[in-house]
Amino acid sequence: MINGLIQNGCFEQGVDLFLTMENSGVIPNDITLISVLCAALKKPDLELGRWVHSYMRKNRIKQSLILDNAVLDMYSKCGSMEDAREVFDAMKEKDVVTWTTMLAGYAKLGDFFRAARELFDALPSKDIAAWNALISAYEQSGNEKEPIAVFNELQQSKGKPDEVTLVSTLSACSQLGAIELGAWIHAYVKKEGRNMYSKYGVLDKAREIFESSERSDVFVWSAMIAGFGMHGCGQEALGLFSKMQEAKVMPSVVTFTNLLSACSHSRLVEEGVDLFHQMEHVYGIKPDIEHYACLVDILGRAGQMERAMDLIRNMPMAPGASIWGALLGACKLHKNLELAEYACKQLLEIEPQNHGALLNQGKWHCEFLVGDNAHPMSKEIYIKLEELEARLKSVGHVPNKSQVLQMVEEEEMQEKVLYLHSERLALTFGLISCGPAQTIRIFKNLRVCEDCHSVFKIVSKIYERGIVLRDRYRFHHFKQGSCSCKDYW
Questions:
Q1: Dihedral of alpha carbons 304, 288, 237, 197, sign
Q2: How does strand 440-443 pair with strand 363-364?
Q3: Residues 422, 435: contact at Cβ < 8 Å?
């Protein structure tokens, strides 16, 4: 009866019935205790879980591997890895479930990568769930190189990836620009004959992989939400989150980071604010500094500077570089010089070497790899660049000199600096080296400037080329003179 109530989501009634049973002097068995522990982790309710664990010790309930694993799982999913580690260290017997539970617990918290890696290396045998936990942990932390490195380790160990592995690794590929590995995964999928297909940078194909996955845990849901967000599909990300709730998959701190980021890129201001407030009140997840940074970004991008500042003033922790960086980016977007100077000052106090913050007399300036002539095809690139410049002028493009980030006074030199932006050089190389039907794909580690964004739209029309640009924040899909971001990024 207790198990039935809890399995159907009636946690309070199930726990009340357990207390009635306990007061009647009936000694619970393993199944009963596992059911109550399940209620604690699904709510989640750490105090209830601790009470059940304490009850087991006080009443000298006989230990078993399955019961110990249930206690471990409860602490892990309730976010108390200190308690989980204590249980883990005290266990006389451990199996693959024990090790994987610990690994997944460390991975979800995001702050324990060294501990997670050490635990992974100590595993006596590694099943695919353990590999997936580590790959997903790195991928969802924004560390794009590590999941690919771990995936390569998996291949070398002769392990066989499953759908979860492929989704997480593809997500890392899309962020890093690892086209060759993405193509390998595509070939692997076709060879295995599964109803899945992946093509780098194409969101609908990533969705097919997600929907064909037989089992989707929080890592897979979060990765797909991140994919929608990076492509500017905020409504789709929110829709997927609703389906995630229907599937009774508990969101993690990473899920909310991805959701808030998706709202930011799609101008979903109030939706983002609502999600932020739901984190603690509905899901019991206390927002960390990255969630606050996302909300500052949401408000700042929408031009709600005072609201963003109120949020910063009332934060429960000291604002870090990510907070001031988000505000500074919004100030640049809305040309709020006074607030930008203040944000810049705060940022430089925290990160004195942060060149992206430098601001002087209304001039924004960073360090860019512009004017690069080290490429073996540099001569052809610059000839094509001159042709491109002439075609842009012929269709009426006027360079936006406010986007010149260096201290350059002469107007002619300001135009020259714009034409030598690294993404502009990459685009020119793409026009030379890619076939007419081939999509040009470019990755940039900074936010694309407004003038380059305008140029990419024009080029997609006059050259009839599809262009995908991944800047620091999101994907931009250019086609026939328009961009998927609708000029909001």
A1: positive
A2: unpaired
A3: no
**CA neighbor of 421 nearest in space, from 367, 356, 364:** 367
Kindly state the tokens that stand for 131. Answer: 């590999």
In sequence order, what are the beta bridge partners of 477?
468
What pLDDT does 22 receive?
81
Residues in the chain: 489
CB atoms within 10 A of CB 3: 15
Question: What distance in Å separates the CA atoms of residue 72 and residue 288, rounded to the nearest whole number?
Answer: 24
pLDDT band for position 292 (cuts 50, 70, 90): very high
The whole-angstrom separation of Cα 116 and Cα 122 is 10
Q: Is the dihedral of CA 254, 136, 113, 348 positive or negative?
A: negative
pLDDT tens digits, 156-173:
888 888 777 877 787 777
Cα separation, 8 vs 327, in Å, equals 45
Going by C-alpha positions, the residue among 138, 141, 142, 143 that lies closest to residue 154 is: 138
pTM over 0.70: no
Residue 82's alpha-carbon distances to 79, 119, 205, in angstroms, are: 9, 14, 40
- Compute the distance between CA of residue 249 and CA of residue 217 in angstroms, rounded to an integer: 7
